[in-house]
Amino acid sequence: MKIAEKRTYDMQLLPESERPRLLLVDDQPVNIQVLHGVFSNDHEVFFATNGRQAIKMAHTCLPDLILLDVVMPEMGGLEVCRQLTSDPETRDIPIIFVTGQDSPEDETIGLEAGAVDFITKPVNPAVVRARVKTHLTLKHQTEQLKSMVFVDGLTGVANRRRFDECLNIEWNRCCRHNKSLGLFMIDIDHFKKYNDLYGHQAGDVCLQKVAEILSSQVGRSYNLVARYGGEEFVCLFPGISMENAMSKARQMVKALYECALPHAASDSASVVTISLGVAVTFPAQNRLPEELVAAADAALYSAKQNGRNQISSRNLT
Ligand SMILES: [Mg+2]
After folding, report:
1. 195-244 pLDDT, tens digit each
2. How far is the CA of 9 from the centre of ligand 1 (A)?
3. Ligand 1: distance of its center to the CA of 26 in Å?
4. Is the pLDDT at 5 greater than 70, yes or no?
5. Rounded to the nearest whole angstrom, what is the distance from the C-alpha of residue 33 to the centroid of ligand 1?
6. What is the CA(31)–ligand 1 centre distance, in A?
7. What is the CA radius of gyration of the chain?
8. Measured in angstroms, how far is the CA atom of residue 113 from the centroid of ligand 1?
9. How far is the CA of 116 from the centre of ligand 1 (A)?
10. Can you tell me the mean pLDDT for 111-134?
11. What is the whole-number distance in angstroms between the Cα of residue 153 and the centre of ligand 1?
12. Closest alpha carbon to 27 in 66, 58, 72
């Protein structure tokens, strides 16, 4: 983790794909045009002209920052801000209010609704650029700190806390989009015996190696590997079918087996192996993500009962 890496968004130097994403929200197209002129050269700019559209765009574009008009017909900026900051998926996106109302009372109401800053119209390009740059930098630094809080120190994969958070977010996302969610619960076979035979330092190296192999097998960036605790790992696969989950699980078991880490005390093989429980379901609002965890755990238990170094699965309906 390179926490010292300081990035203050010298945006001209960034490749297009890494440019900060800005969402501009204003019911007056002319105001959007002005801001677009300020940022379009070195930011990826999205815009919305009403509150509902803004909330939708915030979910689909996942902007790094939102410049939000306060006074709009139907849904005003304060309500948009409240909704975005109370939703786990969008609550970390900094919102700057851009408004003609500049009394201290208005400013207080805006900040209480969850905005990070307040800019008055007509906007001064240099000021709005400077404020946006400051908040993008702060967001980036916060993300770096957060990523440290969410990483397992020994193995470098996500930790339990991160997994719990992701599970909830993905569960809700899959509910909304009617997508499946797959979960693997993974246990290193006879790990206590490994530690007893080779020592705890070797045990740590073994955990690191297993984490590395699982990470290399997990695939797409929105899939997740996490250390669940001790010698247990979990993987999360949004949108996966049972068939693909099983094939992924087989790849993982095989990859670790082929890595051939000696384990002379194992009853299952002469090398380090894993048992793997697979569960897949279509999340629903009236059910809890813990059901998926329990199903994967039950599948893992079966895999172990059946002799370890194997996969077992549960299909939740
Ligand atoms: Mg307006």
Report:
1. 999 999 999 999 999 999 999 999 887 899 999 999 999 999 999 999 99
2. 29
3. 6
4. no
5. 13
6. 9
7. 24
8. 17
9. 19
10. 92
11. 48
12. 72
Calculate how far, in angstroms, residue 68's C-alpha sits from the geometric centre of ligand 1: 9
Of the candidates 191, 174, 144, the residue with the CA atom closest to the CA atom of residue 236: 174
Whole-number Å distance, alpha carbon 241 to ligand 1 midpoint, is 45
For residue 30, the CA-to-ligand 1 centroid distance in Å is: 10
In this prediction, residue 1 carries a pLDDT of 35
Query: Would you state the pLDDT for residue 316?
Result: 85
Q: What is the CA(18)–ligand 1 centre distance, in A?
A: 30
Residue 53 Cα, ligand 1 centroid: separation in angstroms? 14
How far CA 220 is from CA of 223, 225, 232, 240, 263, in Å, comes to 6, 11, 21, 11, 31
Instruction: State in Å: Cα 35 to ligand 1 middle.
Output: 14
CA of 84 to the centre of ligand 1 (A): 18
DSSP code per residue over the chain:
--TT------GGGS-GGGSPEEEEE-SSHHHHHHHHHHHTTTSEEEEESSHHHHHHHHHHH--SEEEEES--SSS-HHHHHHHHHTSTTTTTS-EEEEES---HHHHHHHHHTT-SEEEESSPPHHHHHHHHHHHHHHHHHHHHHHHHHTB-TTT-SB-HHHHHHHHHHHHHHHHHHT--EEEEEEEETTHHHHHHHH-HHHHHHHHHHHHHHHHHHH-STTSEEEEEETTEEEEEEET--HHHHHHHHHHHHHHHHHH--B-TT-SS-SB--EEEEEEEE---TTS-HHHHHHHHHHHHHHHHHTTSSSEEEEE--
Give the C-alpha separation, 105 to 83, whole Å.
Answer: 21
Task: Kindly report the pTM of this predicted structure.
Answer: 0.63
Identify the structural domains of the chain with CATH numbers, from first to last: 11-149 (3.40.50.2300), 160-315 (3.30.70.270)
